[in-house]
């Protein structure tokens, strides 16, 4: 670890799989984009821009916790080891599991996989990448023989046609999206096609948008293949020399020769579908980008192969500007795949004997080689439970100990309530996290405090196979340790010191690199030979590089240009598909789609703490078409409940014609830490892809109910942790952090006369909380009350402590001003205005559009009415869109709808 971090430290953003380079400047405590990093060349999105604001230690885990009590490391480690040992002795190694994360570094991942599969001898090790990349992994293996992304980011800039299917790139991989748009700005003839059931921010920038019926992507791409074949637009030289399966694949696709029928099936206009096919046929330089709209489906693997089929059949792979490009979600989802941290993988792309049976004379050669290399006699011989089955096995009591690292399955797994119950029942739950209060940490018997971004050292691999360094530039908070270190400490306590005596991450990385050379000889693309003897200094100085490393003699930017694949016969496989099999199952009133919003990262443990990132969307919502809303007499902002046999979710109706009728979209982000009944994953059942076992998060089924609200309440408080006390008091509670206050938004559905009682309960709790923090003195109360309306302020020594507004409707609240009231001592004027919720000269309280410069919708609309006609001139006037650029699609939308504005 670096003890004397230099003034500027180069590291990698810990959020998405774009893998942007960042530079931390110690002097100014800022984090900026790394101008030299080949992923982003200095750009950052809104989350990356706000990184510095996540680096305080508030809420961090600073020491281990054993059975709810703070503990020192020796106690935590010996307790963990002795309890694990007892379970292994009594129930066998197969009763122990690990559930890891694409947010671990490669070195963390490597040692965890080695410990469980090699030394403890259990194959039940899976990762949240099962929820994320498993279909792509399975699709790549089926087509290419190995899990390899053929292209690179530059291909997006070189392509003349970019097809974004099941990817909201503008919000989920914003820097890649900016690179794409910048290339298009230089060459406006480049075309972008977006295929998504929702008209997303990405779709707003498309030349053609196909609002596909969910789940029909296989049909659409099979139809495209049939069309291209009929037009004579296949690359038959390439397919004859380098592919197998074309004939059967074309046969299977024949059922979609009639474009009108296909358009009907996919529910898109036939003219638009024809345009897409014509553009595709006419454009050699085509990149198809895909993500969770493809992977997270009951036919996710087939969707991946339907896309790859078209690229293989047209020879558009491994060439500049032509490839299928899976964009990975997490910063190190790719690294996890490299070290084999999925239940059906071994390590270093080495395969289990079952995978080589039939294609190799000695199917156990790779397994034997690894066993020897690790000196691990107990190395498992076959795959284990994948995520959903793993938690089911915990629920059944078959798995008795689980170690969860860097992921929050109580929020992010399907059947989330069952996952929670399974952990409650599980004999031993170990959790390594960086925060004290995640929904999963709450279920742990032993909690290990881990180092987070800025404190830890190691490598990550991004979507284009580029390995970059995360480097430490802050000291460890409290007693937190690196994830790899914690794994090695437990391994040693279990008696496996000989396999886990690493001094630093460089040593682990070298071992990982050496492992990739086992039984390789060009049989696998993942080959890090060049790094096996790398010095510590070279590791520290590592510059971002793609694998296979150039020294091995490949073009490392693009693979397969030479037509050599990693199957037994070196040919790529086309997979016969028709796509007729799977459509969203009917059952509920609505199909439930879910995914990301612009400013939040997953379960919000980090981004939910940054006030600026909480403003774009402050509450869980249910996006729906206005026609659906009408049927339920809903207007924008009304409270709705989604439910099915598994659970309940509540959020605000968000009316938008970007949704298809009969389909809803909810954010995946809200957890029990931010709301009550806000976890959408309680609604997803265990349906998943039969090959990849990846859950179908885009196609749940739910009933919808309007919640008739009798009163809305907003409480602003200096106290950041009142949520547990408010849970259960109301029908709906969410919390929104601000810089100097925490906001609790609540709603009551019971008759309005219960409001008085609720107010007095809350008031009582507030007074006692304030009294406690102020050593006994009761706060001064300022209040105004009209029938059914309450407004109260709690003040102590001229310091505002809490503010409560309640009634059938609420006043327009100027939150920025209120936050300032909490920051400063109250003056006579502010005191008088507090209960209004806004100063007499109210500022702009409309929706926040630009998080970087805090520019709101009303200001943008006013500038448009005064004559601003493009995003550039709005940028000049207001600065909006000139920071990270993530809000440009929304600004363009405001410009588009300008004539209809009434201001
Ligand atoms: N802001 C932000 N960015 C992130 C993340 C985050 O939490 N926040 N997380 C990162 C991670 S881990 C991941 S995996 C990526 C995910 O990145 P994306 O996959 O781009 O994001 P999602 O919002 O999950 O889903 C993408 C789109 O798939 C569409 N879709 C749903 N069903 C179908 C279908 O049947 N067919 C098609 N064609 N499309 C469909 C959805 O409507 C949605 O717009 O984002 C990464 N980036
Ligand atoms: N409905 C629905 N559900 C989904 C999805 C969806 O689209 N829809 N998407 C799925 C996908 S693609 C993904 S990737 C998952 C993501 O889901 P999760 O992985 O559960 O989400 P995170 O919030 O990223 O969880 C990371 C945890 O690790 C902690 N952490 C952060 N840094 C470190 C570190 O360095 N070390 C350790 N030990 N801990 C750390 C954080 O505090 C947090 O608790 O969600 C899945 N769930
Ligand atoms: S696009 Fe944003 S979240 Fe993704 S790596 Fe870059 S800065 Fe981080
Ligand atoms: Mo993901």
TrEMBL record:
Keywords: 4Fe-4S, Iron, Iron-sulfur, Metal-binding, Molybdenum, Nitrate assimilation, Oxidoreductase. The keyword Transmembrane helix does not apply. Belongs to the prokaryotic molybdopterin-containing oxidoreductase family. NasA/NapA/NarB subfamily. Residues 6-57 form the 4Fe-4S Mo/W bis-MGD-type domain. Its cofactor is [4Fe-4S] cluster; Mo-bis(molybdopterin guanine dinucleotide). CDD domains: MopB_CT_Nitrate-R-NapA-like, MopB_Nitrate-R-NapA-like. PANTHER family: NADPH-FE(3+) OXIDOREDUCTASE SUBUNIT ALPHA (PTHR43105:SF9), RESPIRATORY NITRATE REDUCTASE (PTHR43105). It comes from Rheinheimera tilapiae. This is Molybdopterin-dependent oxidoreductase. Gene3D superfamilies: 2.40.40.20, 3.40.50.740, ADC-like domains, BFD-like [2Fe-2S]-binding domain, Dimethylsulfoxide Reductase, domain 2.
